[in-house]
């Protein structure tokens, strides 16, 4: 299934427990080689722009998928989404919103800013695992990646 | 008076009836008759007739008197009375010489005057035209004598011919033996038509004529005649009146010349008509006046009503003509625009006076104004996002309506109604803010409470699976995650409870010395400050203010704790607590030289459960809480910081009322 191509996921999640859940489940699905985790919106943008401590692309490779929480310290998830989708070099990056919020407004705003997918964090551990597995397969295996 | 008189009359009549009844004998009274038509005259059959005769006959019937007539000329009659040949004369005017040999009845038989008659075709119209003419008159007649005196007075020369009776006078004039003739008015009125004569309109010297008897004789007779005459002349239906009517051919008043009657009738008719017309006119005028007055009253009342209505409404109302000039304005309009009297607005162009600029200060072209536009297309306008300008140059947010006024289909102006909606706009904004806050709140709550729930459930599931797989390496760590999440949920819940309390429960305001309060807070934080050696300065002489002491202490504590927490790598940490005055506002501040906050986050840091550093302690409710407390006190809380490494200054104000007591 894997062609030895290094696939990177950028996880933007301020809750360390949730990050751990994503990491565990994605690792189980075995689709991604690398999961990079940042805790806030500002760090996410710095990472994508290769700014500051993320300047080294070898250590911090350009991700093939971004899992983005909406409620983040400093720069909000929606702001990150908006900036990514408005940036000519970044907008092709698939951005999957992974959040606890099922507020209509969040869903609408996320799609308005061209989110590629909007997923609710399942409360159930099994569901969480299943979602992560399918998510990984879909976006990293089945989906034709932009780069 | 009249009753008394009638009683007297009845008494007199009874007396005479009594006398007559007792006497049982008919008295004979001889009357000197002459031609005095229609009072007394000899007809063609030689009989003596006339209304005197009829009246005397009636009296005779009642009084048992037989009147015998001795006919002759007027002067012969006088002689016969003198000699006692007759007892009674009719138609005698008073003259001093006659009074010497006659006694007169008290009640006049008639009032007569002299009147000058001429043939119908005669040119004589006035007294001057009888110059050198021949005038016929009756011998011994008072009127004849009066006419001679009149002519002399006017120095008119004319000749006179004296004839025995009025008949002879008329006959002479009709036969052109004389140019004009003087007769008694009573005779003339009755006879001029038969003789083919007309009155000249020259009338003179009215006088009364009476019954007379010989001096000292027949006194009872005179009294009797008097009493009948007095009564009869006052009664329209009396024997006398009927007789007089009969003999003067239906003339109502035979003593009045016919031309005069005609004139009077015509004049009377005219007067009646004129009076009628005047009455009619007057009635119409008064009716019209009444209508006008009524209308005026109605108009005044409705005008007063309109004025009252206009001035009692809270809405400002003014009227415009097609030029956009003010035609009227009510009290609210005057006061809302900051003027003293309507005169300051009347006639002024309202757009240039109160609507000249937009809210952002751009000039407002009158042609762009929707009130002006509503003039043009005749539509009603409603706006609530424009400002109106007061006399002092300040402006207020206004909601206005403009209604065109039409007269016979044409737009002649408009009525503009407006309200000052500054307060409403403020409330609207506050409401919007509150709604947004509420939305943020529910969103935050659902999101933030769900997060630990997910952690708990998911890691519990993970543990179960690990147990099933016999894995125990991460069990302890996962259980800790679960415990921490449960703790976090617990603190989130208590924080939320705390936050909701602030809005609802406000302790009564008390006078708080801010220096005292700051010192209390610092004492409270002794533990924290011992761990973090920071130089803290408190500005002396801070004002005292009215507030919820505990809540404001919480704010100060929160801000100091924040400053300590985010001091960063500062080697010489300092915190300054004080107050500055800016544009009349007293601003309390807690200033630090710590890590500072990027201007991008100056708003988000006050959000509920928002944290700049995901890894820092606490739920992120601290600043949201402080902000809420300050806002409940009518103030605001904000941060000033140039960014990372520049330190932060958290500032707050309170409602002026809190500070009033200083």
TrEMBL record, chain B:
A Pfam family (short name) is: HATPase_c
Cite the entry's keywords alphabetically. Kinase, Membrane, Phosphoprotein, Signal, Transferase, Transmembrane, Transmembrane helix
The record's annotation in PROSITE patterns points to:
HIS_KIN, PAC, PAS
Q: Which Gene3D superfamilies match?
A: 1.10.287.130, Histidine kinase-like ATPase, C-terminal domain, PAS domain, Periplasmic binding protein-like II
Q: Which InterPro entries match?
A: HATPase_C_sf, HATPase_dom, His_kinase_dom, HisK_dim/P_dom, HisK_dim/P_sf, PAS, PAS-assoc_C, PAS-like_dom_sf
- Which ranges carry the PAC domain? 382-433
> So what does this thing catalyse?
ATP + protein L-histidine = ADP + protein N-phospho-L-histidine
Enzyme's top EC category? transferase
Transmembrane segments in this chain: where? 259-281
Q: What is its EC number?
A: 2.7.13.3
Q: Which residues form the PAS domain?
A: 302-355
Residues forming the Histidine kinase domain are: 444-658
Q: Where is the signal peptide?
A: 1-23
* PANTHER family membership: PAC DOMAIN-CONTAINING PROTEIN, PHYTOCHROME-LIKE PROTEIN CPH1
Specify the protein name: histidine kinase
Q: Which source organism does the UniProt entry give?
A: Pelotalea chapellei
């Amino acid at each position: 299934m894997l062609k030895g191509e290094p696939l990177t996921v950028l996880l933007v999640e301020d809750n360390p427990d949730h990050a751990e859940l994503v990491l565990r489940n994605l690792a189980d699905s075995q689709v991604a080689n690398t999961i990079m985790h940042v805790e806030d919106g500002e760090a996410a943008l710095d990472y994508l722009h290769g700014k500051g401590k993320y300047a080294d692309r070898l250590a911090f490779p350009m991700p093939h998928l971004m899992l983005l929480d909406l409620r983040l310290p400093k720069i909000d998830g929606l702001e990150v989404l908006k900036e990514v989708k408005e940036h000519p070099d970044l907008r092709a990056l698939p951005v999957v919103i992974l959040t606890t919020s099922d507020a209509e407004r969040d869903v609408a705003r996320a799609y308005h800013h061209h989110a590629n997918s909007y997923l609710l964090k399942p409360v159930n551990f099994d569901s969480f695992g299943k979602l992560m597995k399918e998510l990984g397969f879909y976006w990293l295996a089945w989906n034709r990646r932009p780069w | 008076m009249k009753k008394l008189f009638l009683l007297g009359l009845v008494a007199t009549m009874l007396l005479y009836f009594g006398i007559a009844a007792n006497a049982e004998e008919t008295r004979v009274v001889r009357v000197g008759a002459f031609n005095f038509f229609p009072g007394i005259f000899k007809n063609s059959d030689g009989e003596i007739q006339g209304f005197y005769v009829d009246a005397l006959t009636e009296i005779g019937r009642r009084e048992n008197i037989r009147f015998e007539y001795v006919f002759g000329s007027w002067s012969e009659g006088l002689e016969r009375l003198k000699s006692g040949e007759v007892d009674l004369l009719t138609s005698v005017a008073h003259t001093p010489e006659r009074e010497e040999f006659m006694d007169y009845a008290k009640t006049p038989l008639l009032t007569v005057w002299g009147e000058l008659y001429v043939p119908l075709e005669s040119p004589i119209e006035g007294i001057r035209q009888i110059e050198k003419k021949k005038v016929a008159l009756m011998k011994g007649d008072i009127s004849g004598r009066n006419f001679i005196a009149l002519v002399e007075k006017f120095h008119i020369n004319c000749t006179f011919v004296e004839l025995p009776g009025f008949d002879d006078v008329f006959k002479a004039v009709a036969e052109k033996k004389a140019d004009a003739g003087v007769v008694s008015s009573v005779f003339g009125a009755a006879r001029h038509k038969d003789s083919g004569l007309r009155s000249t309109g020259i009338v003179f010297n009215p006088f009364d004529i009476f019954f007379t008897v010989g001096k000292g004789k027949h006194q009872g007779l005179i009294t009797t005649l008097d009493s009948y005459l007095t009564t009869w002349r006052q009664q329209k239906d009396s024997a006398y009146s009927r007789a007089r009517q009969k003999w003067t051919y239906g003339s109502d008043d035979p003593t009045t010349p016919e031309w005069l009657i005609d004139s009077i009738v015509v004049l009377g008719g005219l007067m009646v008509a004129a009076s009628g017309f005047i009455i009619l006119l007057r009635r119409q005028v008064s009716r019209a006046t009444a209508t006008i007055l009524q209308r005026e009253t109605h108009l005044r009342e409705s005008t007063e009503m309109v004025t009252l209505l206009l001035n009692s409404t809270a809405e400002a109302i003014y009227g415009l003509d097609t030029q956009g000039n003010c035609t009227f304005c009510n009290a609210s309009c005057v006061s809302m625009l900051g003027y003293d009297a309507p005169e300051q607005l009347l006639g002024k162009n309202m757009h240039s006076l109160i609507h000249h600029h937009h809210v952002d200060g751009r000039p407002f072209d009158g042609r762009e104004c929707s009130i002006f536009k509503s003039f043009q297309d005749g539509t009603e306008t409603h706006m609530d996002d424009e400002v109106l300008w007061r006399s002092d140059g300040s402006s207020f947010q206004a909601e206005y309506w403009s209604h065109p006024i039409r007269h016979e289909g044409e737009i002649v102006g408009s009525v503009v109604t407006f309200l000052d909606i500054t307060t409403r706009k403020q409330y609207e904004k506050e409401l919007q803010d509150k709604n947004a806050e509420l939305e943020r709140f529910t969103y935050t709550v659902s999101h933030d409470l769900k997060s630990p729930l997910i952690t708990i459930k998911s890691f519990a599931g993970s543990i179960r699976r690990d147990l099933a797989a016999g894995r125990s390496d991460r069990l302890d760590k996962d259980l800790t995650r679960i415990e921490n999440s449960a703790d976090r949920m617990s603190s989130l819940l208590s924080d939320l409870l705390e936050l909701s309390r602030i809005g609802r429960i406000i302790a009564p305001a008390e006078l708080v010395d801010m220096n005292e309060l700051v010192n209390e807070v610092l004492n409270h934080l002794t533990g924290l400050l011992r761990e973090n050696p920071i130089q803290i300065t408190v500005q002396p002489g801070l004002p005292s203010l009215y507030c919820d002491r505990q809540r404001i202490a919480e704010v100060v504590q929160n801000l100091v704790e924040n400053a300590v927490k985010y001091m960063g790598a500062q080697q010489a940490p300092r915190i300054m607590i004080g107050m500055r005055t800016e544009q009349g506002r007293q601003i309390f501040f807690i200033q630090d030289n710590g890590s500072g906050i990027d201007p991008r986050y100056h708003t988000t840091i006050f959000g509920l459960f928002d944290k700049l550093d995901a890894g820092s302690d606490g739920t992120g409710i601290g600043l949201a809480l402080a902000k809420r407390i300050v806002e409940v006190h009518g103030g605001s809380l904000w941060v000033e910081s140039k960014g990372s490494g520049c330190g932060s200054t958290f500032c707050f104000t309170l409602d002026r009322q809190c500070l009033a007591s200083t």
